[in-house]
Amino acid sequence: MFTKIEHGPLMDRVYRHQRHFYDVTRKYYLLGRDPMIAGLNPPERGSILEIGCGTGRNLILAGEAYPKTSLYGIDISNEMLATAHKKIEIAGLGKRAKLAYADAADFNPQALFARRHFDRIFISYAVSMIPQWQLVMHEAVSHLAPHGSLHIVDFGDLADLPSVSRKALYKWLDWYHVTPRNDLFDIAESIALKNNATVQKQRLYRGFAWITTIRRNGM
C-alpha cells in the first residue's frame, strides 16, 4: 500500500531562500542536464513533462529546444513552483507550459492536466532527493505514451573520482538531503523489464553524473 511521505514541507524549507539563487549556483555541479535535454528528441508536436521542475530552468530549455511541444511540470515545493511560474512567463512560454503541485510518487495527470500520457518525461537531479524514488520511476513509466521515454540525470556513483574528493562530496550532498542512487541503472533495468521497455545508460564526468533512459515499445 502506498504510504504518503510529507516531503513537500521539507523541500519548502530547503528552497524558500535558495530558489532565488538556485540556478546561478547549481550550474557548476548539476552536470549532464543539458545533454539529457538534448537527447529528449520528442515528436514535433509532442508533450514533455518534467517531474520535480524546480525553478523551471530545464523546462524552459526544453521548450526552446523543441518549440512546438506542449510543456508540463510538477513539483512538491510550492516555493519552487512560485519561481518556476515567474521564469516561464518571462521566457514567453506561459501559453505552452502548465505547472501543478503534486507528489511525483502518486499523481494523476488526467486531473492535473487533462491528459493521461506524455511523449517524454524527464527527472533532473531529483531522484537523489526523493525518498520514494523507485516508486516515482515506476509511476513515471506508467504515464508514458507508446514509444515514449523517461529520461533521468542525477549524481552517479562517483567511482572514478579520488577517494578524498568522493568522501567530501558525499558529505556535502548529505547536508542538502541529497543521496546519490548508486543502483539507479539496476532499477532502470528492472523497471524496463516489467514494462516492455529498453534502457540506455551513460556515465559522464568520471561517474559524477549518470543519465539513464527507459524507452517504452509500442503497445
From TrEMBL:
<dbReference type="Pfam" id="PF13649">
    <property type="entry name" value="Methyltransf_25"/>
</dbReference>
<dbReference type="InterPro" id="IPR029063">
    <property type="entry name" value="SAM-dependent_MTases_sf"/>
</dbReference>
<protein>
    <submittedName>
        <fullName>S-adenosylmethionine-diacylgycerolhomoserine-N-methyltransferase</fullName>
    </submittedName>
</protein>
<dbReference type="InterPro" id="IPR041698">
    <property type="entry name" value="Methyltransf_25"/>
</dbReference>
<feature type="domain" description="Methyltransferase">
    <location>
        <begin position="48"/>
        <end position="148"/>
    </location>
</feature>
